[in-house]
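Q: Is it fine to ask for two folds in a single conversation?
A: Yes, each is treated on its own. Send the first.
Q: Here.
A: Result:
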Amino acid sequence: GQYNNGIEKIDDWRRNNVNVLVHDLGVAIKKIKPYVKYGISPCGVWDNKENNSAGSDTRGLSAYRELYADGVKWMQEGWIDYINPQIYFPFKNRAAAYEILVDWWQKHTYGRHFYVGHGAYRVTENKIGWTDRSQIPRQVRHLREEHDVEGSIYFSSKSLTDNLVGLQDSMRNDLYRTPALPPTMPWLDSIPPNAPFGLLVKNSANGKMNTLFWQKPDLATDGESAYGYVIYRFNLDEKVNIKDPGKIIFITFDGNKLQYTDDDIKQHQQYKYVVTAIDRMKNESKPSDSRSANEEI
């Protein structure tokens, strides 16, 4: 062969070099810190259908063909934990439509996570699709209706901190109004911690806040206790349901923080609370017993 490893075509040789790097870097990272989530953000198009029957119905820059980046292989082989394609295109874009790529990538997750990369830096452009200032919020709502998209990543953070076209506002006030846990990666860690116990809720003398106290859980079978806690609040007559993230009022990533003060309460309104423990990979325990303020145990 003309190139190393008996590879005859230079394109395949280049792709192989990239593959070796992606694989070996992942192995090296996990050896030192097995909990690190290792992922890559390639360009949005893996390959176009006109050149590859397995490709997407697009006519954009091909990561596979022009950049020698075979993201599908990395996912198939389980070398990376997530892929974050840069789908920096609007809906119905002629060369590469947002909705076509979101649909295509969902069919190529192989049990790993697919997060959409959104082009937040493009929101001020006066180009077709981007003149619609609700383009990114619409993209987020769209992916939330899909089955195999685990979330969003935005480029760039400066676009958000600068609040271009009010994007940060709509995130804070609408799209990300309530806290949520990142999705778990069971292939890295599937054992949840044990539940916190001994929950107490004390109402302050002026009735304006409830303070919660709890005990750190015993070690789970993998030797982990708690990396943090999630506090849920319900009305007294509500059923406790920790599957509803709208009931989360606080998440702490400090396993030694064993109290929380809820000062966002309506006077004369009774609430009940439960606390769950999370591990570093955000596996969540069963809930503690539920408690309302000044309830005798």
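Q: Second one now.
A: Result:
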Amino acid sequence: MTKPSVPNAGPICVPCRLAAIGAVVLVMAGGFAYVAGWLTPQRLTPHRVINAFETDNGSHPGFRRNHAKGVCVSGYFDSNGNAAALSSASVFAPGQTPVIGRFAIPGGNPSAPDTSVPIRSLALMFTQHDGEQWRTGMNSVPVFPVHTPEQFYQQLVAAKPDPATGKPNPAALKAFYAANPETQPFQAWVKGHAPSSSFANGSYYSVNAFRFVDANGEARAVRWAMVPETPFAPITDAQKNEKNFLQADLAQRLQDGPLRWHLIVTVAAPGDPVNDATLQWPAGRQQVDAGMLVIEHETSQDDGPCGDVNFDPTVLPTGIQPSDDPLLAARSAAYSLSYNRRTREEALNPNLHHPQPNGGRS
């Protein structure tokens, strides 16, 4: 079998007005809720950012403030040993590691239509035999719209829905984009790529850079992607008229057998940006097929194993370290606050757990 490479799905021109792009950027950003705990309270705090998400998405007690609509999955990672030279993490030694995961769409509304955004996400928790965990949150877009936590918060403010229309104010978004040209690669990618027709046939990217550390202590900057064996197919016209199709599609596919993704690790070259998630690395970088992610089961997140997992991407085993990307510490701080709020709400009101099609409480 030919080793897959991280794909650049063929461009598909999709006319998109400014307000629509603003909504996409908002919900995509919602998947990451970035704000650093080390920023001073006078400037920015996790509470201000999470409060902004609650304002923009409405009140949904017991749910994640972002990626509220999703489904639990489980399976394993079958390492081929190829990445063991890059990282001493035992997940890369030959053999299998159990995995709990979660497919979702960005946004804080658990009842949002699957067609409300063109982005899909995949979060995973690998539990190594030594008890250490590797948690990662990935999206189907290889870049992030902004570079810093401050920009992210400004974007939230600009994308606040107008009560009269329920949509972001195009003038506010236009002003934000003009002041932040870093958003252009993300906007261009969204305009040029159709959303996938399934969770199963999408690629998922780490977006942020990390560092793999080998047994000798040598560190290399890397990004990774989950590349599906299922051929990519764009969303169909019939699906565009459906509110909930992604979970049903996933369940149907799993009835026919497990789904598989190659874990492709891309190694940075000297000079590649490792602290800016708005920039892709040039083509031609070293890529390592580290093994196969195998998803065997899906379960409603109302009672599934992913419900109580905080997919904090800075929970890393020995052999993997965060880079100096300022968004990583920010992600961790905001994920923690979101987790604490929803679990407190659940503890105070056990009746919050209401199963929904392709939705969930977490």
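Q: Anything structural to flag on that second result?
A: Two points. The helical segments are 18-30, 46-57, 149-158, 170-179, 184-192, 246-255, 326-348. The chain has one domain: 18-352.
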